Amino acid sequence: MKYYCIGIKGTGMSTLAQILYDLGYEVSGYDDAKAFKFTQVGLEKRHIPIYTDQSHRIDPDTIVTYSVAFHENHPEIQRVKNLGLKIVKYNEVMGGIIDMFCSIGVSGTHGKTTTSSLIRHVLEDNGGCNYFIGAGDGYAASDNDYFVVESDEFNRHFIAYHPVYSVITNIEREHMECYRDIDDIRNAFEIFANQTKKLVIANGDNEEVKKIHYTKKVLFYGFGFTNDVVIKNLKLIEEGSRFDIFIDEKLYGSFEIPLFGKHMAADACAAILICRELGIPKEKIYESLKTFKNAKRRFAIENIRDMVIIDDYAHHPTEIKATLEAARQKYPNRRIVAVFKPNTYSRTKDFKEEFVEALSVADRVFLTEIDCNRENPEDYPGISSKIIIDEIEGADIIDKDSIDKLGSELNSVICFMSCAYIDELIDGLKEYVSSIPKED
Fold first, then answer.
1. Which residues lie closer than 8 Å to 55 by C-beta, 6 or more apart?
2. Orientation angle between helical segments 112-125 and 282-290, nearest 10 degrees
3. Are 165 and 104 a contacting pair, CB within 8 Å?
4. Residue 272: in which H helix or E strand, if any?
5. Residue 81 · residue 22 · CB < 8 Å
6. pTM surpassing 0.85?
7. What pLDDT shows up at residue 434?
């Protein structure tokens, strides 16, 4: 069977393409982006062809799937329709694949990638697993028992999934271009939860998660003492986080992770509970967690001379605040600088005040102009990064040509945050810093 993936450099589509290839299918794809993206590393490793124009031939027996970032009138989508090719929604393709295995679906407004990656890491250390993680990272082998799948609520994608086990890390307002209100979002998560075949692991500290009417067995975790599983004695240190887990008021175990922030301890707890449910001894879970390295663009740290650069996928106000607070945890004696690239007009409009509050955690703030490939700016008059900058003292616009605005922050921690492509800014800063003569 042959698959053709339109938008193949997108995080989700890249991951799907890699999984299809690993399962023995012939895979190729198209993307508008000609520049290199981190998501194509796995594609190139597998020698999956990536096309950027409409000159190549597509076999008539090919199944086409495409990213929702591509509109129906896109030339490549119109071409495959005119060729009469079968088109299947990307999440439906993924749903069919994971049904072949004992699947663990990880959902939530925030923390999906980290929690999925934690589960994957422990399982790989203890027998192996397949995984679909929305950081351009995927792998599958037909002889693996387990499949860890990051289950995205965007456009209700996860409704196509029927996992054996599921996780709900939290529920907040997000993707308001797809949902009417918070009740609509919660209802989608409720459908996902109740399609779970065996057990739901849910964050009992989150009000919306608790509101769900569960028809399947559920285990609540969190810091609140009313949860089935309680995280206690959390210590946030420069090397990471340490905490104890109590189940039914009895100590299950003490754990440490090389991750920063209270939210990371909660994500690790969810992962620990899944691995416990799968029969992995707590001693082995403990050892695996100590060696965990997070997914691409999740608090990725690089040192350039005396400057620290952090590259993070944070794009929602809650995530931005958590990233900046985590940076302050790890670097308590450094200035923290936020460089944020908004990626949709709708989110900028809907969360203006929340963005202002979250970014104000930093000592200094920069924003790029909004970078969006799925919304028309004419539909959002007056919405730009300026509406956030005007509310934060000293904030400024930055781009690759004005990266020298960071010249006074050579000893600071620079947090680059976005779900959009931000490498050109980071590369520009590295080049700029490297060009500055060292003082004797």
1. none
2. 120
3. yes
4. helix 262-277
5. no
6. no
7. 87
